[in-house]
């Protein structure tokens, strides 16, 4: 007999949809989320403000950003750690705590929106957690995986963070491989930053057809 994980609600049939943008930092995730917002998907209430690194804005939730950062810390990791998350965290009492906090965050940022954009590069490394949270809240995730050439990503991170090439490449691999592996079997589509810049209409057509 299948029973839900302790402390987690029984799953309801999804009645809402989230476009979940998956991609490494500096890979065009902000541009993609902004375009999806302009095309009619709801963006979070409390947007991360623009800064020197991204003057046009990030189009992601500050509440989700802080929540994911705290979750990584509780698992003994951080956003710039290229090693995998400790799998034991998913069996710990902290999972129930963060599940409740994530549910609260979704309500505050998206209300009862039936169609919204969830974007934070940290989600790439926490996808099993977020898939559970979304399903338990009756939200169907549709995954939009976006990529940028790793050398371009590494160069951008080196300018912003002062990182070495090896550190940037390892983190790129962690985000890209985790996002691909943990979104298998779900409805997903792959685009690239270059595609979005060259012809945003073509990129949106690919997303529309790929996600039905």
Keywords:
46% helix; alpha/beta; 212 residues; single chain; globular
**Order of helical and strand elements:** EHHHEHEHHEHH
Number of helices: 8
Q: Give me the count of strands.
A: 4
Distance between the termini: 33 Å
Question: What number is the mean pLDDT?
Answer: 92
Shape field? globular
How much of the polypeptide forms β-strand, as a percent range?
A: 5-15%
Order of strands side by side in the largest beta sheet?
Answer: 2-1-3-4
Helix content: 40-55%
- Which ranges are low-confidence, i.e. pLDDT below 50, for 5 or more consecutive residues? none
Helix vs. strand class: alpha/beta
Instruction: Indicate the radius of gyration in whole angstroms.
Output: 17 Å
Q: Characterize the biggest β-sheet.
A: 4 strands, parallel
């Amino acid at each position: 007999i299948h029973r839900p994980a302790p402390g987690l609600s029984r799953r309801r049939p999804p009645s809402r949809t989230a476009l979940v943008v998956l991609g490494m930092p500096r890979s065009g995730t902000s541009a993609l989320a902004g375009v999806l917002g302009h095309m009619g998907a709801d963006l979070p209430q409390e947007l991360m403000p623009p800064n020197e690194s991204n003057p046009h804005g990030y189009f992601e939730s500050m509440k989700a950003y802080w929540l994911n950062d705290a979750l990584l810390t509780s698992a003994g990791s951080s956003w710039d750690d290229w090693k995998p998350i400790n799998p034991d965290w998913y069996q710990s009492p902290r999972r129930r705590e963060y599940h409740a906090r994530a549910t609260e965050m979704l309500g505050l940022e998206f209300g009862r929106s039936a169609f919204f954009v969830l974007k934070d590069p940290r989600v790439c490394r926490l996808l099993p957690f977020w898939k559970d949270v979304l399903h338990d809240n009756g939200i169907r995730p549709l995954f939009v995986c976006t990529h940028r050439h790793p050398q371009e990503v590494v160069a951008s991170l080196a300018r912003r963070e002062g990182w070495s090439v090896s550190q940037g490449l390892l983190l790129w691999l962690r985000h890209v491989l985790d996002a691909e592996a943990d979104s298998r079997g779900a409805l997903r589509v792959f685009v690239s930053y270059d595609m979005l810049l060259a012809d945003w209409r073509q990129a949106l057509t690919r997303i529309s057809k790929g996600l039905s």
